[in-house]
Amino acid sequence: MAEQRVAPVYTSAGVRSGEVTLDPEVFGIEPNVAVMHQVVTAQLAAARSGTAKTKTRGEVRGGGRKPWRQKGLGRARHGSIRAPQWRGGGVVFGPHPRSYVQRTPKKMKRLALRSALSARAADEKVLIVDSFDWDTPKTKRAVALLEAMGVGGKALFVLGRGDRVAERSLRNLSRVRVIPVGQLNTYDVLWADAVVFTGETVEVAGGATSYDVADDDFVREDEAPESGALTDEGAEA
141-191: per-residue pLDDT in tens? Predict the structure, then answer.
């Protein structure tokens, strides 16, 4: 049975202006710990690069000649100095490049996200900033906002389109993670001690996420966008 929960609302200056009733289907369900565990495990697995590589005896350079004749020397027979028992030889059962991605159903990921949001709401760790009216990026403003809201640990800010200035003000803080509402996921919610929404993003949280682990989530470093960066439309650059 979903429960009705409320969250405090603040202005961008950190002044409490009231409270809002949260969607019980997103913030008021009974958290499913098993599903959250499975989804977070899949996220962490998908983040692994999977590039570890060792050479087998067939890939190690050299060793094409038999080191000594088969019989007559009183020594063990060998066919190559690149066999695994030799120094400099190949590796047996070593790691090879692979993908660690675990496919999980979309309904399961949605349930895990709502369970995580409900857990944070039950602990009164869901906060709302009505809107960001900051005209220029200033980290000092972000620090003052966190202090005014009483957020002392790690904070996840869920921003929407048009919050580019807020994102640039928050991204330099080591204990703050900024994410577009369309990329909201279970791991980031559980990572944070407090989850901060805007008046816009709290309305669509839990139902508008487009997060889905895929091979193209992980790009080469020379192609990777700046972490957490938002375009003017509010999507990742």
Answer: 999 999 999 998 999 999 998 899 999 999 999 999 999 999 999 999 999
Q: Which residues contact 197 (CB under 8 A, 6 or more apart)?
A: 7, 126, 127, 128, 129, 158, 205
CA 39: distance to chain centroid?
Answer: 11
The architecture CATH gives domain 6-50+100-223: 3-Layer(aba) Sandwich (3.40)
Q: Domain-by-domain residue ranges, the chain?
A: 6-50+100-223, 54-94
Count helices and strands in the chain by DSSP H and E runs: 6, 6
Verdict on whether the full-model pTM lies above 0.70? yes
Q: Name beta bridge partners: 194.
A: 155
pLDDT in tens, 72-125: 999 999 999 999 999 999 999 999 999 999 999 999 999 999 999 999 999 999
Lookup: tokens for 63: 């060793």
| C-beta of residue 184 within 8 angstroms of C-beta of residue 235 | no
- For the beta carbon of residue 61, count every other beta carbon within 10 angstroms: 8
Tokens 């640990």 — which residue?
Answer: 153
Is 135 in contact with 167 (CB distance < 8 Å)? no
